[in-house]
Amino acid sequence: MENAKPHSIRWHLFQVLLTAIVPVGLLAAALFYLQSQAQERERERSQVESVRLLAAAVDNALDSTEQRLGIFAGLWASGQLDDKGMHARAVEAVAANPDWSNIVAFRADGTPLFRADAPFGSPLTRMTLFDIWRPVVTERRTLVSDVFTSRATGRKVLGIGVPVIRGGEVTHVLIADLHLPWFDELVSRQGLEAGGVAGIFDRNWKFVARSTEGDARRGGDPSPELLADIKRKPEGVGKYLNLNGTAVVTAWTPTRHGWWVAYATPSAPVDTVFWTYLLLFGAVWLATIAAGIAFAMAKGRRIASALVSLESRADQLAHGRPLDGFAASRVREIDHALGALAKASETLRLATQQRDASLATAREARAAAEAANRAKDQFLAMLGHELRNPLAAITNAAVIVKSPLRSDEQVDFAGGVIERQSQHLKRLIDDLLDVGRVMTGKILLEHGQLDLAASARYVAGSLETAGRFAQRHLEIDAATAWVDGDQTRIEQIISNLLINAAANTPPGGRIQLRVAREGDDALLEVSDTGRGIAPESLARVFELFFQADPTVDRGSGGLGIGLTLVQRLAELHGGSVHARSDGKGKGATFTVRIPLAQPPALAQRVTASARAPQPHDILLVEDNTDERQSLKVALQLQGHRVLDAADGAAALELVRHWRPTVAILDIGLPGGMDGYQLARALREQFSALHLVALTGYGTEEDQRRAREAGFDRHLTKPAGAEELARAIQPVRRLAPATPQRAA
């Protein structure tokens, strides 16, 4: 036997399976499969047909209610019945229709008129028209509601509402509350088989009715598994545990009114037959296995001896030990496997080294991702805080302005609050948009020669006027330093550094602003005596959304994007920014360096003297009524004569007859003509008209499109009074339209 030729493992296993397991197993599996599939298909077909009949019955009941209620609404709308007469008819209708529990009438404004279960004219203080019934008024259509809790009775109810239309207007809403136990009886009467349960669900998959336990289940949810399948597909059949813990086969289908109907029958009868056959098969199968085992014992010894050798080598591989030499087994596949294990041992060693390196990289990446996620959460929390604070102040100011007891001083105070907080919100939005454009490299600079000292003094003065440095001492030491840059972005750098210093300096502290020339650079330095920066945070202060101490009092504000903008804008100007601090409580200093430029000629530095503002004829085009009317009043208070329009067609007509000198246009306009198209039309006919775009679109691309359309100025909402006053100056004289010659 030692010299016998080894056979493959397939040969040994084939002898056992061929004589015992394979024929019986394949035959029994085929019979069971065919039998179970046939029964399942028949059962599913029967279930679907039954649930479709139930859905038709529900739809018929709802159609009947809509028709009967529509007849009542028509009688009332025709004027044949007054309100009291309609109440009397409603009482009779409730008594005559077992599927109705009540009739309720509301006026179109939402106030209650009567209930059929209460005397006419009795107070109905707890009743209001739910929001779910608003489409009956606004869309003038019949509406079938979902299950909701009645404010008057506190019970689960469901109704159908129809509009009462007189003279082309909806004057009342007539609602029939459905008697939901009647729907329980409706599904019970549809010939359900023994143990079957039928249910109706609304559009939110809440129980409307159930053939058993209707009151207890009403307003509740079906089993989670059934609910998930109903949401996944509109019609189907599945096996579930019902709400009573019983195994059932459930079919479901939608109704024409957007509801759902489900019909469940116990799965035990079919399952019992299946398990009976399965047990019979098991007995035959065990007998076959017993005979096969007796034969396999003799053949298994040869395989087992070879597997012992393979097992020992596999154990060595599992523990990472190199495989030593091994003797040939009596099974050819085992010999091949032992050779493969030796190769796998070397491959595993190399893979382990690569895995360790990959794990180290993955840990670093995960740490970076977790840090980014924490920064995102902190930013969202801070953004909510920064947006709610000014909105709260604006809301309080609006309360003051609307109060009949307000004084002139209080109105002035409220106006100041609204102006300051609106500018604060505008700055937040601008910073958020700017940081996105800067980070993606989509921002464009409009270069020009400017004095960094003059810009610094201007920005500091504006912030001081706005109260940014309240109870803080600001020192300015600014020497002339000319640079080549974008004035708006340079002022944005200065503003963000000063606001950051004010936010981190407590009352009584000192802020120093210095501008100087140092070598080939213009130096802008902002230092403070505030809370300072910890050494471990100093290297990260310019990271997007980074907050050195997110647990401190948020009264100072900040989103963690201002310093990022400063760094990116400084780099776009060929400069740099550096932060230094001696630690917490010892203040901080931020230094910006921008290459110096040659000063312009004296004639270029002299600006035209400011002209005194003068009243103008202004056309204001804005589709938002509140915004249009409020801006019209603001311009009129400045002495201008203002005419307004809500779309492009009306605006063109006004310009032809009124000939204004200034036109302020929104970009997003209704009627097929946007602000760009309107500007082109006005520029073609009235070339001297001064055009100002006032819009919420503020990107560089939006400004380019505005210039191409013919606008003289582009402002983003909200625009302050001073900014708007500068935008409408100077104004060119309106030239008459030049008639087009025929070709």
Helix content: 40-55%
Overall pLDDT: 79
Q: Which structural class fits the helix and strand makeup? A: alpha+beta
Give the termini distance in whole angstroms.
Answer: 112 Å
Name the shape in a single word: flat
- Return the CATH topology of the domain at 446-605: Heat Shock Protein 90
Q: Which sheet architecture does the biggest sheet show?
A: 5 strands, antiparallel
Determine the number of helices (DSSP H or I, runs of at least 4 residues): 19
Strand numbers in spatial order across the main sheet: 2-1-7-6-3
Q: Specify the CATH class of the domain at 446-605.
A: Alpha Beta
- The portion of residues forming beta strands comes to 15-25%
**Runs with pLDDT <50, length 5+?**
551-557, 603-612, 732-743
Output the CATH homologous superfamily of the domain at 446-605: Histidine kinase-like ATPase, C-terminal domain
